Amino acid sequence: MYKVKKLYLISAVSVIGILVLVASFLYFLKLSKELSRTEKLKTTLQQSALTAHNSLTQANKELSRLRSELSAAHEGLSRIEQTQVGPLQKKAENMKESLLIRDTQLSELKNALEVNEEANALLRARNDSLRKQLEGLKAEYGMTGGQGPAAEETARKRDKKSLVGSGKPDRKSAKEIDSLTRKISEMAVYSKRQDEEMKMLRLKVGKLENTVDTLERELFLARAEVVEKKSTVDLLNVQKEMLSADITQWNQEKARLEKAKDLQIEKAGLLAKVDSLTKALSAKQKQMNALQENLKSLNSEVLRKDEKVRGLEAGLASLDSQRRELQEQLVNQQVLLEEASALSGGLKERLFELSRLLAEKEFQIEKNSDTIVLLQEELSDARSRKIKVFDALNPEKTKVQATKEKLESILNQSN
User: Fold this and answer.
1) Assessment of whether the complete model's pTM goes beyond 0.85
2) In this model, does residue 118 exceed pLDDT 60?
């Protein structure tokens, strides 16, 4: 019975040692995994930092390229000013001179038209006076009838017949009437001719006015085109200055023109290129901001990992204190066993054997102290292990107490 209890006690102590060793080994494995994960994270952070540096270098190269394209756009603007704006200005000046000449011609034609209108008015007034004289003569000689050259000729013939029939010819009056009739006819023909000439002059004046209007429209369009070209050039110059200011803020300009590019595009193409350059600059700015944010987040992650490592080191220190407490508990158990051996002289040998076994276990625990020291690098939770160890020791304490009670009962029986 005594041997069975002794073996049971030895087995219990051995199980406790084995449990401690297994728990320590598992804890060490977990800590090793955590450390390897931390190393991988550090490697990843270094790679991310290198990638960020490469991205910044690429952004600097892109800015240099954008600056060269901006210089090329400036050369294109200068070429447009020389090849398009200058000829348009010369064309506008020539059209101004042509318009002045046309205005002079139009003024001369208008003056001639006014003179012809005045002459026509005088002719009409003279024609009216002659008609009035003719009507007065007709009234004097009793001639009536329709108006116009045919009616006057008929009246003249009738007057001649009446004068011949009456035997009272008045040749002088007839000649005056014929003369007036001829003058009236000539004046009518001349007036008609003057009217036709006036119509022709009016047509010429209308054509000249149309020509002047056309020239004025062309001049207006040319001026508008010149203004548009100038405004386009001014706008492109303003945008160029803005882009130059943005590029100088980076202080990353390295190279100037590598190869010249001929720009033969119109105003819309240049504006589109400037817009694309502005968008590219804003995109690069956003990309660099994102990289800076990524670096900040990586730095904060490293700080969190460092704090976690410090917490694990504190947990290892706590685990070491727990190891000391376990050693003290083993010493207390040894004291209890020594007290039990003092109660019975016959059990001294057994207690000595038990003490020897306890000494061996203590030596084994001290031997495993190096392993416990390595556990200071662990990154797992120390509290759960402490609970497991105490849970494992409680049954052994109960068994030791039961063994003590049995020994006391045996001593009582032997007495």
Assistant:
1) no
2) yes
